[in-house]
Amino acid sequence: MSQQQNFDVVVIGAGPAGYHAAIRAAQLGMKVACIDAALGKDGKPALGGTCLRVGCIPSKALLDSSHQYHNLTHQFEQHGISVKDAKIDVGTMVGRKDAIVKQFTGGIAQLFKANKVTPFYGFGQLQPGNVVKVKQHDGSEVELKGTNVILAAGSDSIELPFAKFDGDTIVDNVGALDFTEVPKRLAVIGAGVIGLELGSVWKRLGAEVVILEALPDFLAVADAEVSKVAAREFKKQGLDIRLGAKVSKTEVTGKGKKKEVVVSYTDKNGEQSITVDKLLVAVGRKAASKGLLADGTGVKLNERGQVEVDEHCHTGVDGVWAIGDCVRGPMLAHKGFEEGIAVAELIAGLPGHVNFDTIPWVIYTSPEIAWVGKTEQQLKDEGVAYKAGSFPFAAVGRAVAMAEPAGFVKVIADAETDRVLGMHLVGANVSELVHEGVLTMEFKGSADDLARICHAHPSLSEAVHDAAMAVDKRAIHKAN
């Protein structure tokens, strides 16, 4: 083994949390190393974690391609645009996605170079005494000593014991991003973010899609009215979402192109089964902490395999921190971004903090779903007196002109102080509009503050303005 190398900060993982931590620490004058094991399709190191390689970025590329195709085949006629014999070349679409991924993973490598972050490619394991042993891809090992070590190992797809991934017929999000042709029939286990987004991609391109969700309610994590509108729109699109459907068994039959999967499940009508060409298992993700810690480090894992940390992402072991998907809190790239920056600044002696109450959530379906803060049900359960106002996109000129009238914006405020407690949206481009709620809540603003800010006309943002006005029953463009 080569001589131990010393750094101010050693980061294990170059996903959203890890690369932000590494770059911010380097900006603050520290000597930084960042370790990552991932390889791209070309077999070369690919920084950026699940998000850039097989998550957020590639899925949005496919969502956009499939949305364009769907508009071409289903929406353009109302605009007076006619097209004959429209086709989708899946290989070209996936190739475009791969090029975008390569651009962004390469971009992280360039940022590391510009900020003088030293990358190591391989598997990092924390040893006692803030030493990280790296097993590099060429078989060699190096030891890095960090005054501080930041664990940012990310997460992996949860595999079901009766639906093991084979990378072909039964797949996780990685496989569903790389189908070589549109499956005739696709089943998805799990109606969460990944299931809905990737189910939407292949449905738009012509697949019959059945989504099996074990829970009795659709998108129970979101506002009930938002979930109801979203479910209605997805049904219109032909997404077959079956609730209370608990999968118990899968069986792959046939060979080659004749392979099929028989999926057995139970629902309120008893035992059922469907036969499909591809099965996507999207039941959630788990912390990628296996092999991360050697014996004797003092760092603890909870029963879910997450690294235990305090509110400042410190593990309780001097100089050891953990961030992103491998710790508590939502598994969201932007949550990891903020934790990475906060920890780098705390190490430098600066104030660093992440406000979990103002982290936005987005599902990039069509219509998009987004929210920040509390739902009405949560506030009822907590006994908080509130008032709410909502406004439909069907009454917004820009939305109707775009042929995107579905959905609404809801603003929830404290009944006494008028302080905004939550914003819930479903509709076109609400992934961008939700940040009005984030900003208002971060600055402890009121619904009246939001209502008194001038919004451009015509714009989708007018729905936010009118929803804020509706909190006090003074919306202009709807009966209060």
Automatic annotation (TrEMBL):
Coiled-coil ranges (or none): none
The keyword Transferase is annotated on this UniProt entry: no
InterPro entries noted in UniProt: Class-I_Pyr_Nuc-Dis_Oxidored, FAD/NAD-bd_sf, FAD/NAD-binding_dom, FAD/NAD-linked_Rdtase_dimer_sf, Lipoamide_DH, Pyr_nuc-diS_OxRdtase, Pyr_nucl-diS_OxRdtase_dimer, Pyr_OxRdtase_I_AS
Gene Ontology CC entries for this record: cytoplasm
Cystine bridges: 51-56
TM stretches of this protein: none
Keyword Transport belongs to the record: no
Annotated cofactor note: Binds 1 FAD per subunit.
Binding site for FAD: 60, 124, 325, 331-334
An annotated GO BP: 2-oxoglutarate metabolic process
Domain Pyridine nucleotide-disulphide oxidoreductase dimerisation, chain residue ranges per copy: 359-467
Chain ranges of the FAD/NAD(P)-binding domain: 7-340
Enzyme Commission no: 1.8.1.4
Residues of the active site: 457 (proton acceptor)
Protein family: Belongs to the class-I pyridine nucleotide-disulfide oxidoreductase family.
Protein name: Dihydrolipoyl dehydrogenase
Phylogenetic classification of the source organism: Bacteria, Pseudomonadati, Pseudomonadota, Gammaproteobacteria, Lysobacterales
